[in-house]
Design brief:
single chain, alpha/beta, Oxidized Rhodanese, domain 1, five-stranded parallel beta sheet, two-stranded antiparallel ribbon, 6 helices, 7 strands, rod-shaped
């Protein structure tokens, strides 16, 4: 094929190719504009959802902090101090209390040796049998001792000398202090489903 003929056909093919794309763009310009507008609207919607989520999380944390602000004023005691008091004063002067909910127990669960269980959701009924002349040391397995601090705060409002063990059961176990199995009477067996 002669060079000029090849060049002409090449320009013709490129022109048809460009005109085809231009024609498709011209014909569907409104449709493409709607698609781009949809992407922009979706982007704004995602931004709103993300911002709303961040605000909701901050509000939740602030409400949680405000609701439990008094619990932070409950005196906290380290494991070593509680163990030393048990050695010097004996169990008759100190009361150890496990404030985990029944549902937290499972077969083989452990607790601090000599402790009793206090049901946090039934505190008003259980409070009648607690002696007021003994220091009460509460523990749980919550992060930041949330349950034990809340129960200790309520007990202190009723005139009890309640304290929170820093780190709860995990800290007691890590320090190598004595544990015992949770009695069978305190275990709640969750329902099982057979196939």
């Amino acid at each position: 094929m002669p060079f000029l003929q090849f060049l002409g056909l090449d320009f013709l093919g490129a022109g048809i190719y460009a005109l085809s794309y231009g024609a498709v763009g011209f014909i569907f310009r409104d449709f493409i504009a709607k698609i781009i507008g949809g992407f922009r609207a979706a982007g704004h919607a995602v931004e709103i959802v993300v911002v709303a989520g961040v605000i909701a999380f901050i509000a939740y944390r602030a409400a949680f902090y405000w609701r439990h602000r008094k619990d932070r004023m409950v005196p906290r005691v380290h494991v070593a101090e509680v163990a030393a008091k048990l050695q010097t004063q004996g169990a008759e002067k100190i009361m150890l209390a496990d404030v985990r909910s029944h549902g937290y127990y499972a077969a083989g669960a452990m607790r601090i040796r000599g402790s009793i269980r206090i049901e946090p959701n039934n505190l008003s009924a259980e409070i009648k049998k607690f002696p007021r002349d003994r220091d009460m040391y509460l523990y749980c397995t919550c992060r930041s001792e949330a349950t034990s601090a809340s129960v200790a705060h309520l007990l202190r409002e009723q005139g009890f000398k309640a304290f929170v063990i820093v780190g709860g059961l995990a800290a007691w176990r890590k320090a190598g202090e004595p544990l015992e199995a949770v009695p069978e009477a305190d275990l709640v067996h969750l329902p099982t489903f057979s196939r």
